[in-house]
Amino acid sequence: MKRDTSKGPKPFLKWVGGKTQLLPELEARLPDDFARTVRVYAEPFVGGGALLFHLLSKGLRPERIVINDSNPDLANAWRVVQRHADALVEALARFETDYRGLPDESAKRSFYLGVRCSFNAGTSRPESEDVARAAELFFLNRTCFNGLYRVNAKGLFNVPFGKYANPTICDEETIRVASLALEGVEILSRDFADAVADAAPDWFVYFDPPYRPLSATSSFCDYTQGGFDDDEQRRLASLCRSLDAKGARWLLSNSDPKGTNPDDTFFDELYAGFEIRGVRASRMLNANPEKRGKLGELLISNYQTGDAT
Ligand SMILES: C[S@@+](CC[C@H](N)C(=O)[O-])C[C@H]1O[C@@H](n2cnc3c(N)ncnc32)[C@H](O)[C@@H]1O
Fold this sequence. Notes:
- With 309 residues, the protein is α/β, with parallel strands linked by helices.
- Strands 3-2-1-4-5-7-6 form a seven-stranded mixed beta sheet, with helices on both faces.
- The chain starts with 22 loop residues before the first helix and ends in an 8-residue tail after the last strand.
- Helix 3 links the parallel strand 1 and strand 2.
- The relative contact order is 0.16.
- The longest helix is centred in the middle third of the chain and has 17 residues.
- It is globular.
- The structure holds S-adenosylmethionine.
- The site of S-adenosylmethionine (SAM) has 23 residues, from loops.
């Protein structure tokens, strides 16, 4: 197959909270001396890895790269892309042929529900390299409603069928380019704090935790069982303070609660003493297109960033 590696690596899964829209803002706020001084890059909430791939495509490749996500199925998918790209492409090509050959929407829906059922019957361990399971996750991601990943209280994937007639299920080029780019990257599936336990002054950590919901009804933290509540946000802030004390640098993104409630000082208090900036970015979470739009995001860092806003 012809590989166009001139196109840089990019996320291979659609992931809620993906940072593609925010990349220019994130890039502008990286430490000025990143290429010269950062030896270890860590992303403890990697999700789809938009910033990681952006850095790699720009040739910013520190000596050691550590990525982590507590979702073991997502970590499994990253590991399978890294180490078993051939087998994954083969399994996805089979899915694509089978799915596209189905006569109508009803047959496609049944096929989707069958794969979802099989996915829910299995599990990934934090260190899994399970190609069949990764292929199911890719298939579901490409054919479910809006590419969402959502689980119920029992941890079962429950996103409905997406009604796409001819979705691309096997994006071979994206997988192969990502696989090459991920050579040597450490892929973990632990709690965020464990992923940066040995941080030192030559580390740069990008934290993109599940967003704090902007209102009681917009809760969108159920990427994994257990959610990410205000106590988790506090635990993360205290980890940031301890990394700061160790001399490691970090950048963190979150939702800006001031967009909906100007009196909400939650993050100002948690991150008092650090640089807190508001930026605008598109957020495509709402199922109702009327309600999608530009929402405020916060970028917080323990170092001075370039431009003042
Ligand atoms: C906002 S998403 C990251 C989006 C990512 N930056 C991107 O561009 O796609 C947050 C991720 O944190 C993970 N997560 C939730 N709780 C966690 C925890 N305690 N430790 C590590 N990861 C966690 C979720 O599984 C989810 O993938």
